[in-house]
Design a protein that fits this description.
Protein name (chains A, B): Phosphonate metabolism transcriptional regulator PhnF
Number of strands of chain A: 10
Radius of gyration of chain A: 22 Å
Pfam family, one (chains A, B): GntR
Oligomer: homodimer
Largest interface: A-B, 49 and 49 residues
Organism (chains A, B): Sinisalibacter lacisalsi
Strand content of chain A: 35-45%
Number of domains of chain A: 2
CATH architecture of the largest domain in chain A: 3-Layer(aba) Sandwich
Keywords (chains A, B): DNA-binding, Transcription, Transcription regulation
InterPro entries (chains A, B): Bact_HTH_transcr_reg, Chorismate_lyase_/UTRA_dom_sf, CP_lyase_PhnF, Tscrpt_reg_HTH_GntR, UTRA, WH-like_DNA-bd_sf, WH_DNA-bd_sf
CATH topology of the largest domain in chain A: Chorismate lyase
Shape of chain A: elongated
Low-confidence stretches of chain A: none
Chain lengths: 236, 236
């Protein structure tokens, strides 16, 4: 039977200790020298274990400062129905939306194409932050056809939840038609909004939501903090 | 009728010129001063137009160097069947896999859980680069249950395509059961593999592939170059 490499055993032990709460999110792990002494191995072996844990997202190494336990990222399911409040509640956290801007303005060419509108047709723009337990997970800018949803701007300013605002404007249900995912660096503004450093990795999604009859009602751009959210796609 | 803001008109014009090939991927755009003179506006308005184009991924600004036309990212569909060679051919490009490593070793705890194996059961590890038209799009590490697929290591070293190697080992079809997507910074090694700078954003996917009967046959980790690939998820 093949022997488990020593670094694997060390990584497994440390991962179990993180799982058991001996080290919590944000805690600094002991130094390489201390871990080498504890496990009776050289620092190269410790480094291999820590690199493996970093690759799996369990820890993050900050140059010159040490190795820290990563916060468990929020699992964010992308399926036929994507609902922020439901997704966050399902992860045992308290959802909240912070409104940065609600305005009505002419659509730009990309919004026109995404929503199937005439050039310059009015759209409701909703910009805000999505939080879980008070921590910002994402920055979003959504646009809706104002012609179809004349009361939406007022409702959004009031209720902040897109699902609830759409319901109050006659859209009882909506479905995710498509999602495109890319990775970007945080701009200075986004870093400020999300409490990240400029250049930190963001997951950017561009989504189209439609009514069950296929009418396009929302184009959503969302930038998730890369270290706080994992998008999960199940094919059932 | 609401008036289109000037910066939107400028962004639309420049985007059309990029689309028409006046400026090509990698080209430097004229300076802000030159664009301000051309459009008869102040530099603030030009900056707003360029920021909008950057947000849409059309251009990238490099501090101190200027604003450059971004390469159109490869659209990479994530659905029930994900096939690298097919995906890249569908985008009109030439797919290629470069083998970095094929080896058989005991699985680690995460691999055991993902593939439903006993601790330490042997897995075939396939590490490599995925290229389109000679440009590296992704770095991947896939693991397969060696007990189920005893000839796979030899076949992979020979054919490089996972689909073809699985077919030659009796797996005629396989399906994507789940995909998890996160954003990370490129490590020094990954930056080297993908021709990026250390810290550049990567899209990381963790995928489980199963046979039509539900047997787990592959756990795939892939790191896509964030500026070269957009994952697209259609809900049909």
């Amino acid at each position: 039977m093949p022997r488990t490499p020593v670094w694997t055993a060390i990584a497994t032990t440390l991962a179990a200790e993180i799982g058991a709460g001996h080290y919590r999110a944000g805690d600094k792990l002991p130094t390489e020298a201390a871990l080498a002494a504890r496990f009776g191995v050289n620092r190269h072996t410790v480094r291999r274990a820590l690199a493996d844990m970093a690759e799996r997202g369990l820890v993050r190494s900050r140059r010159g400062a040490g190795v820290f336990v990563a916060a468990a990222p929020t699992d964010y399911p992308i399926g036929r129905r994507v609902r922020f409040h439901q997704n966050i509640r399902a992860s045992g956290r308290l959802p909240e939306k912070r409104v940065l801007r609600v305005e009505t303005r002419p659509c730009d060419p990309l919004e026109a194409r995404a929503l199937g509108l005439a050039p310059g047709a009015p759209v409701v723009v909703y910009e805000g932050l999505s939080l879980a337990n008070g921590t910002a997970l994402a920055h979003f800018v959504s646009t809706f056809p104002a012609g179809l949803l004349p009361g939406l701007a007022d409702t959004l300013a009031e209720v902040s939840s897109v699902t609830e605002a759409l319901r109050r404007n006659g859209i009882a249900d909506y479905l995710r038609a498509e999602t495109r995912v890319s990775a970007e660096r945080a701009s200075p503004t986004q870093a400020l909004h999300l409490g990240l450093r400029e250049g930190d990795p963001l997951l950017r999604t561009e989504a189209i939501n439609v009514t069950p009859e296929g009418v396009r009602i929302e184009r959503g751009l969302t930038w998730f903090a890369g270290d706080r959210v994992t998008l999960s796609l199940a094919n059932d």
